[in-house]
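Q: A reviewer asked whether we had any structural model of the full assembly, not just the individual parts. We don't, so I'm hoping you can provide one. Inputs are below.
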Amino acid sequence: MLKAGIMGFGGVGRAMAKLLTERRFAEVVGVCDIAPAALKHATDKLGLKATKNPKELCSWDVDFVCVTSTNDAHYEHVLAAAEAGKHILCEKIPALTLAQLDEMIAATEAKNLVTIVNYGRRWQHAYLRMKEEVDSGNLGEVLSMTCYSSRGWGLAMLGNPHPAVAHPDHSGNWLLHHACHIIDYTVWLLGRPKNAFCRSQTTVLAGDSPEILWGMFEYENGPVAVIGDAVSCIYQKWVNIIGTKGTVELIRTPEDNLLHARWETGKEFPYFEDILGYGTDWQHGYPLKELVTRIADGTKSEHDLRATRDAQVAILALEEARKTGRVVSLNEIDPA
Amino acid sequence: MLKGGVIGFGGVGQNMTRKLHEWGTAQIIGACNRGADKLVIAKEQFGLKTTHDPRELCSWDLDFILVTSTSHAHVEHVLAGAEAGLHQLVEKPIALNLEDADAMIEACEAKNLITVVNYTLRFQPQYQRMKEIIDSGALGDVMSITCYTSRGYGLYGAGARHRAVVEPHESGGWIVHHACHMVDFAIWVAGEVETAYCRSQSTVPDVDSPEVMWGILGLKNGGAAVIGDSVACMRQRIITVIGTKGTIEILRTPKGDVLHMREEKHGQHDWSRYDDDILGYGTPHHEQALKDFITCLNENKHDANDLRSGRASLAASIALEESRKTGEIVKLSDLEPKT
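A: Here is a predicted structure for the entire assembly that you could use as a starting point for your response.
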């Protein structure tokens, strides 16, 4: 059985360790974390090896590492793993700058390592179904794609800021930390956009830490893509893709998460005739399964570090647009 | 009983006439239309006097007119009605440019006429409830409002021929014609707009006529209003207002329009409690503006939803249209008529 190390033993790291064990994907050998409490939990409750030093973890007998540390540490941890020849599952956002991501790509590709970035929507059934409708041509040419996500956590001014809002030095800020999901999904479906524009708001008094943002991507002779992301208390996810042949939409209703479509047949009514399904699943199991499968096969994943590069450029362009109030060309961020 | 005339006897004009006769609150006695076929309907199915000339209609013994003609003609019809001293319900958008809008407002206000603009969301209970909650301060300061609507008509490329898309020179184009509803609602609840940025798409060949648009309006209070509008076949409307103290949203579901609110006190979300925050369900109805207009006439009082209140939406819609064409961020102040 494959052996795993967990780099960053917070909530997500522990969930991954549990999944790896329960699903018998791999044996978790040890963890690395900077927090003494996390290390104590690993050793005392789970009988795992524990260290504060990422290079030490990478020196143990592990086949792969799950990098589930804070976003600012992903760069150091992925490079450490690459140096040691370990395959890697890296939590989103893989890096906070494009230069860091490029180094991580180069280091892992040089060693022919399997890498996967955990942009979760790439593994959720409803999102995969929508991608199928786009890729198959059922929707025709995409005219507009909108992705909105409200995290349901709550705004900072109520006294319980989300850690990504409270610590943008670690997270990159809310746009990089959370809107990255829907930006990646958009770029995965539509490709790299040309321009970005963004507005944001916050209740954080000190520092630049957005809590609500709305952005638009323009494509060369192509669709308009809209991104909305909020940390506020209502939980909502909405995706709407309009094509020349039809529209598909995912929306959370009191009944359930609803995936429905309507085809451009000229019939105006009734509503909701074309329900494709209900429910979304959200678990870290799928990317873990993908990782162990690819390691076993010796094949590359389509969800690797390089596959997320265009999304990284789009994310950074949106952030630049947000800070400056300008329409920003992605070529400013990535001239090559 | 109040007596009225209808200028523009298409679907909207006919429906309003039908409703007034059903309610028995006013009587439509005449219709004016550019084309002859609608006047045949007016005469034979509704028993109305008919004319092609709006001034002739305005000279009849009327108390009010309903201006339900194509948008490019509103200025002529409203001015004719104002000259004749007639109160007016005017379809949206009020005009296609701000110079015309200002002339209409001035002419009606000079005669102290009662005017109502048919921005339908302002008159529907679930949206009024939303505004009440926002105005009460329950949501705190509005940081973001998102208004998306998909008309459900269909795209040109798939064979649909919405008139506003096919004849943008008369309608003003989809943004001015239809997105104005969403723009008006955003301004109504969140306040003045300073900037606009917009992108669009279309399946119409050879004519610059958007069918799908998205815009971000910069609000004077620092917030953002996001406007999306599409003529595509799926029918949907989603409005979300995020404030410093809570979020409220309306969205269309198989059970009807759901009004849903969550206050910023729950801390981490609890998905299972979605149902706790449902304020109600509703279905849209489009005649409330007409009812309110007649009530204003009977009570001889002005309505807050008058021509002047419809100007802001027109200005912001024109700014979105300008941004759409140029790809630039547009300041609304730059588009104001020079005095």
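A: Points you may want to mention in the reply: Chain A touches chain B through 63 residues (CB under 8 Å). Chain A has a mean pLDDT of 93.
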